[in-house]
Prior knowledge:
- By secondary structure, this protein is of the alpha/beta class.
- The protein folds into three domains: 25-166, 3-Layer(aba) Sandwich (Rossmann fold); 179-216 and 227-293, Nitrogenase molybdenum iron protein domain (Rossmann fold); 300-455, 3-Layer(aba) Sandwich (Rossmann fold).
- Helix content is 44%, strand content 12%.
- It has 17 helices and 13 strands.
- The strands form three sheets. Strands 11-10-9-12-13 form a five-stranded parallel beta sheet, with helices on both faces. Strands 2-1-3-4 form a four-stranded parallel beta sheet, with helices on both faces. A four-stranded parallel beta sheet has the order 6-5-7-8.
- Helix 13 (330-342) links the parallel strand 9 (323-327) and strand 10 (346-351).
- The longest helix has 22 residues, at 434-455.
- Residues 24, 26, 45, 49, 52, 106-107, 146 line the site of iron/sulfur cluster.
Amino acid sequence: MKERNAKVPDTEDYVSTRNACKLCSPLGACFALRGIEGCIPLIHGSQGCSTYIRRYGISHFREPIDIASSNFTESTAIFGGKDNLFTALENVTKSYRPQAIGVTSTCLSETIGEDVQMYIRQYESERRRLDSGKNFPEIFYSSTASYRGTHIDGFHEAIWSAVTKLAGNEPSGRKRARLNLISGFVSSEDIRELHSILTSFDLPYTLMPDYSESLDGGSWEEYQRLPEGGTKISDIRRMKDALGTVYLGSPALPEKDAGLWLQNNFGVPVTHVDLPIGIENCDSFFASLSRITGKSVPEIWAKQRTRLIDAYIDGHKYCNGKRAIIYGEEDFVTAIASFMDEIGITPVIAATGAENKNFRGRIEAALKNTRRKTEIIDNADFSTILEMAEELRPDFAMGSSKGLYLSRNLNIPLIRCGFPIHDRIGGQRILHLGYRGTINLFDMVCNAIMQSKQDKVSSGYTYI
Ligand code: SF4
């Protein structure tokens, strides 16, 4: 047997990624940054990176999305991008009058070894020297090379960069009766649901990030370069004074975990819970809110919980014993695996494009009742998933629009959820979270199974 050298890739066995099951790291960072009030993302790299991210955002959220770029050219790639970054910061400050600028690196700026943190420090000290007394936007930085992370890593890193910069270095005063909730990479509708849940506990809170309005607002008479909405900078500063933080999902790197950072530096305890999809995950989420606030779960959510159980009973006969392929970013797939397990569906494949050593353990923990084998794959691409799936007879695939490739080749339905949805309208309005979101997903699953059965018979059932 051939011995593999861990450091030198074995070129004979190497297979390139074919049809990637992950997205670019600054993309996740940009959407988190658009969830901060008055914040504009600035990509330190070439135009193409920001165009790609805007293109993805617009096709999912159906909103115009401004993302600035320091606009690398060939010479920048050789001589460095400090001047470009300074010019971009100046231009963005003049044109947008933002409260904050979130700078993210790219594959190119990371590869040439740009010390962006140092550039930002130099820029800020220069601005202070030339224009003392003026208000400048806050500038925070996320290191987001796509060759060592995915969109979900970029998302968590951007939250970390904003919280660590804005919460400051001063020790926290006395703890106040307020709560922090750090949401995962979820839909705008999900964030609106989280607002409803938090409001019902009747305690001030910081929900971070919040793109419920900035990436899904109303129509305008005039173009707004920085749409309204987002987590207030002042509320992010207050996060260090909260009674506790609930963090939906789990960053792969603990050192980029804003919840852990608040805990270690300001004594704000953090509770990580999986995305609240499915009864068990929702119960854990509500229990965490209840414990931190010291208040019992409001009656409205208890009623929705019983409605969800009733839905499970009504639809069980359609789901039980079915097989699914689930794929996407780690937090989303872990939560969907737990939901599948609850409704009697085996995820025959649970896949993520991220290289994440925790993924297997998280999926195994989520599958408490599943008896059949689940292929759990990280660092997956869609071609590999398809090759594995052909033997496993899945009934449907569940995840982003990227799974069209799978569903077409396997001739199975695709249940679109997560991010991105860019071959249908309303991706930003899909509700996944909470008891109501679970009911919504459950209806989608049952109806896809029923439609598939209906489509396969010529007589056509009207009752299934
Ligand atoms: S070059 Fe890297 S940072 Fe730019 S769009 Fe591609 S993956 Fe993203």
